[in-house]
Specification:
588 residues; alpha/beta; 52% helix; binds arginine
């Protein structure tokens, strides 16, 4: 289905054509003077040069062809040459009734659906999930849902950090504590135990202990590096410990992501890419892409137009070990081989941008990815505390995700209990639902690349541009619709009517923007624009609600029209929050 803006522009194009001006000048925009008009066309100003005429003359010409328009209620040429527009209420109502019938609320499926992979989440196994990984999960999940809604074929891959030094540290620490375990006995040749020799709780303690100890103790650090090397080179006992670490951590990660309403199609990781490394290295050498520089194998990726130095991509360290660059390149080999994506979107901290510039260039230059494969880096900013520094616990430590969620939920629960009389149990469940919305909306309402301040008080407020406010609005609409149904009336086959008040029209115009907004969001990969849209729509609804008797409207036709509009508005808002990755409770 066309967007309202498309339809209006079409109408404007016809008028430009009839007046003998080129239709490229007929573009219509949202008004930046909402006090004067709803939409405007500024094309007469641009056309003035071409036609050597005063813009107002052109505007007047065009306007004269719009007097009997099906779409406009008011068309006005104003100095110096703007065309101000108001849309006919019947036109908007027809549009909304069309939209209500459409399965996708008027959003057209992508003409050429793409196969897209999203690399997001990226937690490091055996380390507790911390707030640093929160943004990747929230943003990535939302982008996945948005692109799917538009009809693309999207696969989300968590890309676990499961192959690095942290594994060697855990092995070393475990050996120190329980040297008699069979994993450390090199002559052991039977089957290893099925049960892991640690719980997730223990594992989460082992890693930081080992990591801190290694910083102070050179021998220990050396041993951990050795263990990493041996693990990567297939030492049997270490591979078995690695499997235990994976099994225990992944189970815990799944639980955590489930609480965040985030899910992945693929649980692959750095380890999966390792088997592609030898052939890749051979190719890079054979085809002359790689050369040795001070013992390390590198591929140059500097380009002539670079203003800053872009260091070479590091393929192998002088001791032969693979690096972060290597793993990401090998992962690309794997992805090309197994999935042949049209595009891969990486949702990663923007401080890693240089790494991705190097990897993307190297992958393109060496043919690891096809020339047409699009590689997109979507770097996000830092989540800061109120002091403007990266978010920490009150004691100054790294904030664990679980604790952050708990803090928000407790705050939400307090607020819900303050003004409600629901059972504690129901309030708890509601607090979790609303708490998640508070976190996700707080994050997603900012442009991803920007840093933002995580402000518990603001995010959990029921007023202002917050998740709880949006949910509150949806719940309010639901409750009106429920009450309407309780009178025995049905929500089926209702028609939206022409708006009679300015508040009703404003709400209708907001609701009608949905498909236009979603196309922009897909085009720019910009979930924050969904937030801006639902905030405007929620505001428009609340104004309408305060100014209008809805259920107590005596004219039945009118009442039905209102209900039809509310039903559509609710569907739009619910679809939007679904795309953002959260949902509304029944009551709150
Ligand atoms: N595990 C990495 C980290 O915590 C993020 C992984 C991002 N994805 C990638 N393909 N490199 O920093």
């Amino acid at each position: 289905m066309k967007t309202l803006l498309n339809l209006i522009t079409k109408e404007m194009e016809q008028a430009f054509q009839a007046a003998d001006y080129d239709i490229s000048y007929a573009k219509v925009n949202l008004s930046n003077r909402p006090d004067l008009c709803e939409y405007q066309c500024n094309g007469a100003m641009a056309a003035a040069k071409t036609y050597r005429k005063a813009p107002i003359m052109i505007a007047n010409d065009v306007v004269s062809y719009l007097q009997n328009s099906q779409c406009f209620d008011m068309v006005e040429a104003v100095n110096p040459g703007f065309i101000n527009l108001k849309v006919k209420p019947s036109f908007v109502a027809d549009f909304l009734n069309e939209m209500a019938k459409d399965e996708h609320l008027g959003v057209e499926t992508a003409g050429q659906p793409k196969t897209i992979m999203i690399d997001y989440g990226g937690p490091n196994v055996a380390k507790p999930l911390h707030v640093g990984h929160l943004r990747s999960a929230i943003i990535g999940e939302s982008i996945k849902r948005i692109l799917r809604y538009k009809g693309h074929q999207v696969t989300g891959d968590i890309h676990l950090g499961d192959w690095g030094y942290q594994m060697g540290l855990i092995i070393t620490e475990l050996k120190k504590r329980q040297p008699d375990l069979p994993y450390f006995n090199e002559t052991f040749d039977r089957e290893y135990p099925k049960e892991a020799p640690f719980t997730i709780g223990e594992l989460e303690e082992i890693y930081p202990t080992a990591s801190a100890y290694a910083k102070e103790n050179e021998d220990y650090r050396e041993e951990a590096l050795q263990a990493t090397f041996q693990l990567q080179n297939g030492r049997r006992g270490y591979r078995a410990v690695w499997k235990h670490i994976m099994q225990v951590s992944v189970e815990d990660l799944k639980k955590n992501y489930k609480n965040l309403n985030v899910d992945f199609d693929l649980w692959k990781g750095e380890a999966d890419a390792q088997k592609y490394i030898p052939d890749m290295v051979k190719m890079l050498k054979d085809e002359g892409f790689a050369h040795y520089d001070q013992g390390a194998l590198v591929v140059d990726v500097q380009e002539e137009t670079d203003k800053k130095e872009v260091p070479p991509c590091m393929i192998l360290k002088s001791d032969g070990a693979a690096l972060y660059d290597t793993t990401d390149l090998a992962t690309l080999v794997e992805r090309e081989e197994l999935y042949k994506p049209d595009e891969i979107i990486y949702v990663v901290d923007k401080r890693q941008e240089l790494h991705f510039v190097q990897v993307f260039r190297c992958a393109k230059k060496t043919g690891i990815v096809r020339p047409e494969t699009e590689l997109t880096f979507l770097g996000f900013g830092t989540m800061n505390g109120k002091d403007g520094k990266p978010f920490k616990t009150r004691e100054g430590g790294v904030m664990r995700l679980e604790n952050l969620i708990r803090e928000i939920d407790e705050e939400m629960l307090k607020k819900i209990m303050e003004n409600r009389t629901v059972t504690e149990e129901e309030a708890k469940k509601t607090a979790e639902t609303v708490g998640l919305a508070a976190i996700k909306y707080g994050d997603l309402s900012n442009q991803a690349s920007k840093d933002y301040i995580f402000d518990v008080d603001r995010f959990t407020s029921f007023e202002g541009n917050t998740g709880p406010y949006i949910l509150y609005t949806i719940v309010r609409i639901k409750s009106i619709l429920n009450k309407y149904q309780e009178t025995g009336a049905s929500l089926d086959n209702l028609q939206i009517k022409e708006a009679e008040s300015e508040f009703e029209k404003a709400l209708m115009l907001e609701t009608a923007k949905f498909n236009d907004m979603l196309d922009v969001v897909c085009e720019e990969i910009a979930p924050h624009k969904i937030c801006a849209y639902i905030y405007d729509t929620a505001n428009a609804f609340n104004k309408f609600y305060h100014e209008t008797k809805i259920l107590s409207e005596e004219n039945e036709d009118k009442r039905k029209g209102y209900i039809a509009l509310l039903k559509l508005t609710k569907e739009v808002l619910e679809t939007c929050i679904e795309l953002l990755g959260f949902e509304a409770p029944e009551r709150m």
